[in-house]
Give the backbone structure.
Amino acid sequence: MSFLVSSAAVWTAPSVDYHALAPEIVLAVGLSIVLLVDLFTSERNKWLLSVLTGFSLLGAVLPVLTLALHDDSTRSLFDGRYVVDEFSLVMKGLFLLAGYVIVLLSSSHVEEGDYWRGEYWFLLLTSLLGMVMMSSARDLVSVFVALEFLSIPAYMLAAWRKRDLKSNEAGVKYFLLGVFASAVMLYGMSLLYGVANSTLLIDIAESISLDGEFGAIQALAIVFVVVGFAFKVSAVPFHTWAPDTYEGAPTPVTAFLSVASKAAGFIALVVMVLTAFPEGRDVWQPFVWILSALTMTIGNVFALRQTNLVRMIAYSSVSQGGFVLMPLAVAGGVAGEAALRAVVVYLIAYAATNLGMFGVILSVSRKTRSGDIASLGGLFTYAPALGVLLTIFLASLAGIPPLGGWIGKFAAFQALLTDATPWAYVLAVIGAVNSVIAFGYYGNVMREVWMRPVPHGDTTPITTPSSLQIALGITVIATLVLGILPGVVLHFGDMADLVGAFGG
Amino acid sequence: MQMIRDNNWVLSVGTFLPIVGVLLLLVTPKANDAAIKAVALLTSIATVLVGVFTLVNFDFDQAGSMQFVAQTNWIPVIKSTYFIGVDGISLPLYLLSMVVTLLVVIYSLDHVPSPGNPKAFFVLMLLLQTGMAGTFIAQDLILFFVFFELVLLPMYFMIGVWGGEQRQYASLKFFLYTMFGSALMLVAFLALFFKTGAESFAIPYLVENGAGIAKNAQVWIFAGMFIGFAVKVPMFPFHTWLPDAHTQAPTQGSVILAAILLKLGTYGFVRIAIPTLPDAAIEWAPWIGGLAVIGIIYGAFGCLAQTDMKRLIAFSSVAHMGFVMLGISTLTSFGVNAAVFGMVAHGLITGMLFFIAGSVKERYHTLEIAKLGGMLTQAPRLGWILGLCSMASLGLPGLAGFWGEFPAILSAYNPADGLNVTVFRSYMVVAAIGTVFAAAYLLWLYQRTAFGTPKGHDHHDLHDVNTHEWIAWLPLLIAIVTFGVAPNLLFSIIDPAVQGTLSAFGG
């Protein structure tokens, strides 16, 4: 008893920088309000919830902006376990804005779907809060907590169409494989803690480098952690959950999983390998190299064979993940800065483009009620605007300039060539060939839209709800601006001391 | 290289004016056919006027220098700038792209191919124009790449939506081939950037510093560029997309493809690949020359075997671009001059031939050579124009085609220092034999389609050349004759610029 009292006396509350935590606080308050309002509103007024969710997200963007504009932009909290630097602010901004677009994409879907609306918005906000936390987490425990925080609501969202078998399958598959991945990762983390005797990532980095001899335990720990995240980002061969989950989940949730959730996985992976394992590059670089080559190629080959639109997008998103991994395969060497920039830029461009594509698909499926690629036949003839938008998004995914996607691909290639090792060149050529193969299926969809007849001659026009129109407007402008004036985002990645900031 | 920065807004305006037209078209209601055509026509006329202004203000005494140069920041992080300018090599091609687009727009006023939708058709055409013009003025590799790729999608849709029976296959093939080439080309550009010290993507900078790269690396970088450009040219054996794309494309698409798009590839060799990587160019030249003469003979045989008029013209492009590439492969100013002239001449002549093919198809509803005949009695003016263009295409002296072909063959007699003279002289012999075949297939084509008696076509609507066609065609015909009679009009602009690009090879 006296021991407890004495230690309590020694314990002092850490000084909390509330400004630095403001985005998280706004989100936490917002999701509590959503939960409470849901309890006390009638069915007719549930639309209020989507508005509240949108406002919470935009409200959380404000402190991100004030933090970014503040002179002292790097803030370290809790002994460096939670860091708010430029990198994390960029990612927070991305998650919040992507979240806002997803709210726009979801609102009509949710309103018309006769589902549990309040829970939907609550879970979405919770998961986004996890992502925002992930951007700043620099400690094994905070990384893991953030990861679970963002994953568990996502499992529930995937299974949200409760009476639909496919949606249940989606949720269960996602949950089981996700939990398995967490377990593998946790095991790796426990090994790391055993080696370093600390959970702080920079301490781990120090112990791995100071140790001198690089033992099997360190190697095993690194591999386990990377495998765990490989599941999250659906890298081949850990991608098997993605197509079923994407197909079964409600379409806005698929958009959420394929963009925000995936980006969060990549961010965590980047933070881990660059902050905790900079000296372990001989282990993870070849491993990521193989993952990247496999993910691009196999994702592409399977995507070519799909007739279902969402499954095709699922494989395409697997393949896009391979392109994000590409720069990471050289991130430990001289190309570190370029690689980091490539990942950030790629994720931003990919988010804008993919969300836009889902916007078009949601608009079209309101009419066709079908998931077949063939259901898009002749879209250009009866809905030219949607046809052109879809074309822009597909072309951007294929990496055709001057659209957003190409600057991501360009940055990735640039990182590889900065490294200038034979293996980097080989990966660049594999990437180049894959970007051509990818056009096989993106082009196939374009062909449907422009050159094929309308199925059943049904040319009734499509009415797009205003929320979807806004989402499409935001995403297409982002896609075009990123492509034509890429300096705007490349500037975000242009943080010379970024890698250094991790270490400090 | 000297830079002249006067009037530095001209090129940007000329290049992006079509985009303004696109925006105007987008807000024009789809039902208002007349307004759509008016916007497209006025935009392309305005573009040509800017082009004329460029021509008038071009300092011909300094055709070897970059003129109207503009350079501002674009993507500072990757050291890429918005850097544009024209010299004597770019200027003819830049203007050609503007003129051809205008003529195609005029032709389209009463020839919008099925399934209609002029709004989308003109939007794509104007987008193409920006991409083509931009490629010829870009002085920064990344900017070049962006423009180079910008033409892909519009052409893909032009073939795929408004094309013939096999349009979907042809358009996809076109796209995948080109994209494969450009993906490797981009990797090569990046490699060049890093090997020259990761300082700048500006072409003049790379020309200055590229020669310092180790020869082995140069050869590999050149390989990447070679594939990118050779697909576009197209060189044998990367040509197989071309006959399909040309045959299936609507007339307008074929004309633009033949007149401008193919030149993006040859222009890339002259502007980028050869000046930046001189050692690799010496290594590669015999292979390029070899593929070029194979292309000449193969294209000619291909032509002889065709039963479809449009496909025949497409194969003749393979042969003609073979002459252009042969001229380039000699790495002499004589050969490259011939090549640049050949690009312009081929653009005028083959563009014209595709126009004629389109009009033949419209009148006879077929392009099967066996079903045509007697054009001179049914539509004599059309027949005579076809005759003139066939003669120009086979390289008759006095018409533009001659000045691209003959000097190119001649240049192979005396290739640049470091190249094997025997090899190139054999190429010269083979290429000369190729011209005989060219005469054969073109005369045979003309004989079968224009001579004889009409074959059971009782078309009451079979009219001769109409007003729109005259307006669209006359400028091309005049240019074919003018440049044929007075080739120095063109050579005097091209030559100083060619001398500059080949300075690494001792002229």
